[in-house]
Amino acid sequence: MTDRREMILARLLEIAGGIDGIVAAFRNRDEISEKQRPAIVILDADEAADDSDPSARPSRSPRRVAMTPEIYILLGAKPGDLGTAINVLRARVVKAVLTDVELPAILGSNGQVRYEGCATALARGRSMEGEMGVSFSFTYVLRPEEL
């Protein structure tokens, strides 16, 4: 059995736990105490099949899918220090994911990792908490016979 989705998520958790400055990394966890921060939380989130695949193929045919887990950086810093501190960690997360040598092997020869951007809680009308969502898409070929 080779569930690439599960393999990607497990690898992301390993990557997150190895990032300099991160105290703890979690998957699908809601409450993170101040003692456990800076932390990264990875939520399994969504996956969508590529609509450009021909619809006339058998249902057991391989299908390109893009998964978009939610990756959050959580800080416990003072408001004046949040911007710089969270941007340093964002850069480390982006570099760690995009330069990881194991992810390409999991994604396969037709797969790819793409940085999609980030969103913070630091904006007018939002809370001034140290939280940033970092978005990636992971494209791979879903092969039913591997599941």
* Overall pLDDT confidence: 90
Oligomer: single chain
Strand element count: 5
- Shape summary: elongated
For the biggest sheet, the summary is: 5 strands, mixed
Q: How many separate helices?
A: 3
What order do the strands of the largest sheet run in, or round the barrel if closed?
1-2-3-5-4
- From the alpha carbons, calculate the radius of gyration and give it in angstroms: 17 Å
First-residue to last-residue Cα separation: 5 Å
Concise structural overview:
By secondary structure, the chain is α+β, with helices and mostly antiparallel strands.
Task: Describe what you observe in this structure.
The structure is a single chain. It contains three helices and five strands. By secondary structure, it is of the alpha+beta class. A five-stranded mixed β-sheet has the order 1-2-3-5-4. The chain is elongated, with a radius of gyration of 17 Å.
Write the layout of secondary structure elements.
Layout: H1 4-17, E1 24-27, E2 39-49, E3 63-74, H2 79-98, H3 103-107, E4 112-120, E5 131-142
Parallel strand pairs: 1-2
Antiparallel strand pairs: 2-3, 3-5, 4-5
Question: How would you describe this structure in keywords?
Answer:
5-stranded mixed beta sheet, alpha+beta, single chain, 147 residues
